[in-house]
Amino acid sequence: MTSTVPALGTLTAEGSALQAVLLDMDGTLVDTEGFWWDVETKVFASLGHTLDDAWRHIVVGGPMTRSAGFLIEATGADIGLDELTVLLNDAFESRIDHNLPLMPGAARLLAELAEHEIPTALVSASHRRIIDRVLPVLGAEYFALSVAGDEVPRTKPYPDPYLAAAAGLGADPLRCAVVEDTVTGVTAAEAAGCQVVAVPSVGPITPAARRTVVPSLDVVDLPFLRGLMTDLR
């Protein structure tokens, strides 16, 4: 877990039980879920294997070890997990060097949270090397800290990354709002006890207790996030 800027202001916003906002990266703030699949497809093509498009929903949103391990087993590719991980990260870095679009509403939401001094963390299953390439595009100044998938004992769908982020901000997980785009990420956030806003990017996500599903970040703002905490006031 790496802190990118000093913690922002007071934890509890006046009149709200919201203490912090924890944001996923790929598919939530940056439009890269499709990039990962394109990279995986090209890397396996170079190894002589064709990926089944149906596998995309299996590998999306999870840690590199899980997705890469699944694809090795599914294709029978003659490559080790460590070697494949390097190939995928290298190819992804090359891809985002050319184009890294933000999701609709992402820039506005980050600016709003910063303006109101809401402690905010970036929580991703991507490795630190990838996060550090994306942070300058998002604006590293918007995040009090970031947690990478290779910095916790267990990454998503386990709660560890979100528990680490909440602890790093000095916040109660129950009073943290998480924004995620995949079932894997939603599972991790809910296991940590957080209130979740799901913005599905690849597969469908259904509403549930302490889980609100929205079509895009365009409808997510600070009053919306504070409203999720009504029962905790």
Notes on the structure:
This protein has helices at residues 33-46, 56-59, 64-75, 81-98, 106-115, 128-138, 160-169, 183-191, 222-227, and strands at 20-23, 120-123, 145-147, 176-180, 195-198, 211-213. The protein has a six-stranded parallel β-sheet with strand order 3-2-1-4-5-6, covered by helices on one side. The protein has nine helices and six strands. The protein is of the alpha/beta class and 233 residues long. The relative contact order is 0.20. The protein starts with 19 loop residues before the first strand and ends in a 6-residue tail after the last helix. The protein is globular, with a radius of gyration of 17 Å. Residues 3-15 have low confidence and may be disordered. The longest helix has 18 residues, at 81-98.
- Overall SS class: alpha/beta
Order of secondary-structure elements: EHHHHHEHEHEHEEH
Terminal CA distance reads: 30 Å
Q: Name the poorly predicted regions.
A: 3-15
Which sheet architecture does the biggest sheet show? 6 strands, parallel
Mean pLDDT score, rounded?
88
Q: What is the number of E strands?
A: 6
Rg, rounded, reads 17 Å
How many individual helices? 9
What is the approximate shape? globular
Strand content: 5-15%
Q: How are the strands ordered across the major sheet? A: 3-2-1-4-5-6
Helix content: 40-55%
